[in-house]
Amino acid sequence: MTSTRMTSSSNPEDLFGRAIAARLSAGADDLPRDISERLRASRTRALSQKKREMGHAVVVDTGGSAMLGLQGWWQRALAVVPLLLLTIGLLTIGLTQEERRTAELAEVDAALLTDDLPPAAYTDPGFAQFLKANAAAAHQ
């Protein structure tokens, strides 16, 4: 009733599927005729549905690639574009932040150099206490 078709495929999934099919087919001869016919009809429907699904997948896959004209190295080149854009964006952000930090440091340096006090006064611990006391008095 059932015929087993041997192929040269040694794929583990194929081997497992063949083992299951052989095990299921082993007891098929002992089943009543009506059950055997229903099983045969179910197998036929399942196989035809699987063939249709595989046919659609092949058409969609090749049709999508052919329509866009993306073949071989073009696909790999276009896959690199997002990575390239991300790298450029990160470099731009880094350079912008570095420019801001440099501008802030330049502003502090300019304020220190143009102030009436010498820069050494800012490193004096007593002067730091004096500034804190004045700031606290100004807030009261």
Walk me through what this model shows.
The chain is rod-shaped. It starts with 11 loop residues before the first helix and ends with a helix. It has 140 residues and is an all-alpha fold. The chain has 4 helices and no strands. The longest helix has 42 residues, at 73-114. The chain has a domain at 80-140. The protein has helices at 12-26, 33-68, 73-114, 125-139. Helix content is 77%, strand content 0%.
List keywords for this structure.
140 residues, mainly alpha
Helices and strands in order, then pairings?
Blueprint lengths: L11 H15 L6 H36 L4 H42 L10 H15 L1
Q: Termini separation (Å)?
A: 102 Å
Helix and strand content put the structural class at: mainly alpha
Largest sheet: none
Low-pLDDT parts are none
Number of strands: 0
Alpha-carbon Rg, integer: 39 Å
N-to-C order of helices and strands: HHHH
Rounded mean pLDDT is 79
Report the principal-axis shape. Answer: rod-shaped
Give me the number of helical elements. Answer: 4
Helix content: over 70%
Strand content: under 5%
Pfam families: DUF3619
Keywords: Membrane, Transmembrane, Transmembrane helix
Task: Describe this structure in a few short sentences.
With 140 residues, this protein is mainly alpha-helical. Helix content is 77%, strand content 0%.
